Amino acid sequence: MSENINSLKSTFENELSLVDLTNKEAVDNLRVKYLGKKGLVTDLLKQMGTLPAEERPAYGKLVNELKAFVAEKIEQAITTAQEAELNKKLSEGYVDVSLPGNGIPVGSTHPLYDIREEIIDFFAQMGFEVDFGRDIETDWYNFEALNTPPDHPSRDMQDTFYMDEGVVLRSHTSGTQIHYMETHKPPFRMIAPGHVFRVDNDATHAPMFQQCEGLVVDENISFAHLKGVLQLFMKKLFGENVKTRFRPSFFPFTEPSAEMDVSCVFCGGNGCRRCKGTGWMEIGGCGSVDPNVFKNCGIDSEKYTGFAFGFGLDRIAMLRHSIPEISLLTSNDQRFLEQF
Ligand code: PHE
Hints:
By secondary structure, the protein is of the alpha+beta class.
């Protein structure tokens, strides 16, 4: 009988060596096959009844040893299988924390906003106050007080957006000069950045754009002060090497008036396609405050003089970044904005 026991032991060892130890179910099947109620080891125990009484103790001992052996091996195999299963789960759910993430897109400031901030910084350092004014003006602030007569071409419906009788979307920031002078006593210096509106629409003109006004009033303010301030400002915007020139011009609210040009930022003044071969680019208007404007605001034009200027922020942004179409600045096109 002991051969039966030995041969079952080697069959078991053989089968165990073949079973897939990562497969818990296969290991469990092996357990049932040997140790279950109808299992092979259990069978051997049942056969004990067929033996003569004196052989039974020795036989029983051997079968029990086999049973303990099989049980131990199966238990080890089950532990191995459980570990394998756990490792598999861990490897499937594994998160590599060193991989790059999905990234949160980070926005940037708009080029027009940047330029406005730069302008405010520059003038604030020179003691200018900032007044944003208002987008909707009456005829008085946009025209009349600025010495602009009723028959002036800028009053035409084709140039200015009229809302109601005598109410307009401001066509320039100059009206803020009037509000400021009505409420402040000289001496003062201020800038007035803001949106303005004109009936205009092509590659370099938009129905809405931004301007920045400037106004300085004190005793003995001359055109030389105006030139000094604006020359410094242009250097700040376009670099040390930029040249400026002032061409005689006309604005109803300044006398004398000038148009300020800077040397072309693309060719440095040699003449190119962008500056139409002239070497210069127009930046804005300026001049000494017309005494009539002072009178309209109750400021003594015998005692005080001043200068004013106004230029377009969109224009500066276009020159700075070589932007070919003004409408790109307000189109909200991500492909455009991502470049800044
Ligand atoms: N308001 C003028 C314009 O829009 C610019 C300007 C401002 C000119 C102040 C002189 C003085 O063109």
